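Project outcomes to date are best conveyed with an example. Our students and postdoctoral researchers have been running inverse folding experiments weekly, and each run begins with a structure described purely in tokens. The record below, which covers 317 residues, was selected by the lab manager from last quarter's runs and is presented without edits.
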């Protein structure tokens, strides 16, 4: 049975938010013996957040709520659960925690929502249990949990290498995006497997090889000029995502027709990210896409926001 908030022996509950991510560029290298692909990718965190509140409990419990919670497991199939269990195991303690997860990031959408939840849970339990693990220690656990979890801890804009877990921060001005998704989801392993199939059949349509334009991209990010950045956005997973979800062609075409500077599939999809010139254009583009019957979800977001962070209680509360 969970301990109540008023139990004087319980530490106060901790709430942590963690952002969704998009990939501004994603170059996929060969399949490694461990089943992962060598990546070079530019991640950017956007201001669409899940939040996790943790409080002391007799045993590990997970409660899900929020607009995107439908169908998610509340057991070890959930990355937030696994994050709490892993941190407890490494700390040599019981995972005696109740996790309340509010899902706003669409699931299996190419936005690393599960990774955000894992990152938020690591930060929250580290604080709740008074473990005092520094960023480097949390980062090592994050990398064990998934390829994108380290970035969800870090946030901002970063180059990801290895399987995506080795990060180098990139300076970036503020960017305005629209995230748009048709109904449906894509499995990340299935999209990577489709890319491998396309490569084996010599059918991969190369968008841009090896992030050749990385220096140019880094420069465009520094200046924050969206028009310079627009032609440099590229995702090697896009042809595979389009093969598995051909309806995404319509989403991409709609965004471009409505004036986006550029549009691409985010990560393994099916969310598409559209670059806008400014906040106003992002708002009007999101409203127009939202009105499209083929679009389940469209919202303007700002890129480059911080990673998982504790919501400190206000002085009043
Ligand atoms: O690390 P994560 O659990 O997010 O990866 C999910 C799946 O995506 C992996 O099992 C693998 O099939 C694929 N993947 C990959 N190469 C990467 C990252 C993910 O093949 N660098």
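After processing, the design step wrote out the following sequence:
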């Amino acid at each position: 049975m969970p301990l109540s908030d008023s139990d004087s022996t319980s530490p106060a509950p901790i709430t942590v938010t963690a952002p969704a991510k998009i990939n501004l560029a994603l170059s996929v290298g060969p399949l490694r013996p461990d089943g992962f692909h060598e990546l070079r990718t530019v991640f950017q965190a956007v201001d669409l957040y899940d939040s996790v509140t943790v409080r002391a409990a007799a045993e590990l419990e997970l409660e899900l709520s929020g607009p995107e919670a439908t169908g998610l497991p509340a057991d070890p199939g959930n990355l937030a659960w696994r994050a709490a269990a892993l941190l407890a195991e490494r700390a040599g303690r019981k995972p005696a925690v109740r996790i309340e997860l509010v899902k706003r990031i669409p699931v299996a959408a190419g936005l690393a929502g599960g990774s955000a939840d894992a990152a938020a849970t690591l930060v929250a339990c580290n604080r709740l249990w008074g473990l005092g693990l520094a960023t480097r220690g949390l980062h090592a656990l994050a990398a064990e949990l998934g390829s994108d979890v380290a970035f969800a801890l870090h946030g901002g804009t970063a180059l990801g290498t290895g399987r995506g877990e080795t990060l180098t921060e990139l300076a970036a001005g503020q960017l305005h995006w629209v995230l748009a998704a048709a109904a449906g989801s894509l499995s990340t392993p299935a999209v990577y497997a489709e890319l491998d199939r396309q490569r084996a059949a010599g059918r991969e349509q190369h968008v841009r090889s090896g992030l050749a334009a990385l220096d140019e991209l880094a420069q465009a990010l520094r200046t924050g000029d969206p028009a310079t950045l627009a032609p440099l956005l590229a995702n090697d997973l896009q042809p595979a995502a389009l093969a598995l979800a051909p309806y995404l062609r319509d989403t991409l075409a709609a965004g471009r027709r409505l004036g986006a500077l550029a549009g691409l599939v985010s990560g393994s999809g099916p969310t598409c990210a559209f670059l806008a010139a400014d906040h106003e254009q992002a708002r009007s583009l999101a409203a127009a896409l939202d009105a499209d019957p083929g679009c389940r979800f469209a919202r303007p977001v700002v890129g480059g926001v911080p990673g998982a962070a504790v919501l400190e209680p206000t002085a009043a509360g």
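Residues 35-37, 39, 146-148, 163-164, 188-189, 192 surround cytidine-5'-monophosphate (CB under 6 Å). The chain is about 30% helix and 25% strand. The training component of this project remains on track.
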